[in-house]
Design brief:
This is CpXC domain-containing protein. This protein is mainly β. The chain has one helix and six strands.
């Protein structure tokens, strides 16, 4: 089976803009995930492709798992002691 090549479809995430209420799908490269020390400081963000608004939404454990598994770039926030 050396002649077969597997093609993997890009991961798309469903999202919605709270400003213009548009619903759309975004590729992993359009999202950013920030993981902080608490639930309040763990969120994902993106720019709405319809209205251009910067959107920031909280990310619980399941969302973090889905986004990291789908290849979304992740920033780990560190607190200063």
């Amino acid at each position: 089976m050396s002649g077969l090549s597997a093609s993997v479809a890009p991961v798309l995430f469903k999202a919605a803009c709270p400003d213009c209420r548009c619903r759309f799908e975004l590729a992993a490269g359009a999202l950013r995930l920030a993981i902080g020390a608490s639930r309040r400081t763990t969120f994902y963000s993106f720019t709405c492709p319809e209205c251009g608004s910067a959107v920031r939404k909280p990310a619980g454990e399941r969302i973090v798992e889905l986004l990291t598994g789908g290849g979304v770039r992740t920033l780990r926030l560190h607190t200063t002691a």
